[in-house]
Amino acid sequence: STSGSSSGELQAPAAPPPARRRGRSHRQRGRKWRRRLAGQTDSLCWKDPTVLPFMRWVRRGGLSRHAAPFEMAVFADTGRGCRATRTLKPGDVVVSVPEALLITAETVRASALGALMPSSDGRFSDMFVIAVFLLVERARGEASKWAPYLRTLPTTYSTPAFFSEQELRLLPEDLQAHVQAQAREVAEQFSLFQSLVPAMRDLNLPLPDDATVFNDWKWAWFSVATRCVSLHNTKTAAASSSSNTAAAGGGDTMSGGSRSGIQRPTHVAVAPLLDVLNHHPAVSVHGGFNPHKRCYEIVTDTPCRRGSQLFICYGPHDSETLLVEYGFVPPSNPNDVFAFELAQLRSYLTTPEKRQRPACAQHVVSDVGAKKLAWMEAHGLTDGLTCTAAGPTWRLMVCMRALHQSMQEPPSKWNMVFEGEMLSAASEESSLCHLIIAHAQALRRCSDQLKALKSKGVPRNYHVVMIEQLLQNRIELLRASGKACVRTISELSHPPCESHGLHALFA
Asked: Which end of the chain, N or C, is less surrounded by CB atoms within 10 Å?
């Protein structure tokens, strides 16, 4: 018989203790938190029919309950994003995606499809291989293992590759060259994909309809391009408020303000769930593949309060790169740069027209011949001539000093120029004055473009709003950089440069 039982019958298990009731303070805090969220966000779990099946799918794929301390929500300022479900401190894991959920080139090459794109063939980048995989899996429909994830992806993207012809013509001219280069890349990759189609048909792999195949390819390519992550360990730091500029006494910034796009990593993956986190330039994170846990992790260096939107940083990208590569433009991006063309700087310096020039810039530089240009090209001073909100970069200032330097000067003086040294207060003032006029001219062009855009009567859809924001960001940057140049001249000038009338250019 059971110990303690006189009748010999089995005793029923003891009833569990009653659940501990939460106190009034706990309930009040919960109501206060929910009221604070009301009007700011709206949970997608009950609004979007694709979210709950997707979350169940990632749980089945090995995502632990604590590996993603956020929920998908809609925000008034950014649209779809993620809301932190607990307060995160520096060093906390933002998201941890199991290896089984990662889409990598190795994942694809382990299949019959991957055999058509061997790693030994240099034509097939990781991005290309994953794009082909997404295209095939999308064509499978609900039969695809990845269907719950594919249903959450946008059906189109807001990058300029999806702009109408009218919208493309509204872009600044310098940005149109970037967009055209990207379009050529997408077309070349599409031709490579078409070369695989006969072999894919032999394997009875599903393919999109011929009538829509190019649009489907664009969707697949940008599904990878806008959300892939590097499998190598990376760190994306928040933008510094004191950019390294010549006016601030620092070095060059960014990569010279190149408009050729981002340098994509070679070993990439698409990580479901991670790609719903939005970008913010003030956030610092680091991440990569954790070989011990066999997952892709992102760790935050920036605290985030419970209930607020949880951000990561895609990298120190300027607004042009974010528009072309990702399809959005943040307001007042601290990573923005503005690139000057050497031809524009030369045209002002060599023109005999002196009207509207300040007194410090009345000298006309005529010694900008082939010999000087050859020297500047040899020293990398013909491109990457940029400024930031803190002022001109080191390279731009060296270029301006070189333009003002006579070729008759001894080599020691030219070495000083190349090393970024100021030759004299007078020559520095003249270089800065000419640069200020270049700022003012660029500012006027951007302002005119923005006014023309608003007066053309173009429907203000999201694409047009992004172009307006891009121009507004440029205007703010040029004003800030121009004011930094004026402040530098004020420190050099005797009397101060208020008499030159330069402050009024950036009012």
From this structure: C
356: left (phi over 0), alpha (psi -120 to 50) or beta: left
Q: Residues near 59 by Cβ (< 8 Å), separated by ≥ 6?
A: 65
- Given a contact cutoff of 8 angstroms between Cβ atoms, the answer to whether 148 and 140 are in contact is no
CA–CA dist 344, 361 (Å, integer):
16
Question: For residues 94 and 311, what is the distance between their CA atoms, to the nearest angstrom?
Answer: 9
pLDDT in tens, 380-439: 888 899 999 999 999 999 888 888 877 777 777 777 777 777 777 888 888 888 899 899
Q: Among 186-200, 237-251, 444-458, which is the least confidently predicted range?
A: 237-251
Where are the strands (E) in 363-473, listed by range?
385-388, 391-392
User: Which residues lie closer than 8 Å to 365 by C-beta, 6 or more apart?
Assistant: 349, 350, 403, 404, 434
Determine how many CB atoms are found less than 10 A away from the CB of residue 479: 18
Taking CA atoms, 203 is separated from 30, 120, 355, in Å, by 56, 21, 72
- Cα separation, 433 vs 502, in Å, equals 8
Number of neighbours of residue 246 by Cβ within 10 angstroms: 28
- Inter-helix orientation angle 126-140/213-225, to 10°: 120
Q: Please enumerate in sequence order all residues whose Cβ is within 8 A of that of 113, keeping only pairs 6 or more positions apart, or say none.
A: 132, 133, 136, 200, 203, 205
- The answer to whether the CB of 495 falls within 8 A of the CB of 470 is no
Under 8 Å between Cβ of 337 and 383: no
CA distance 104 to 222: 16
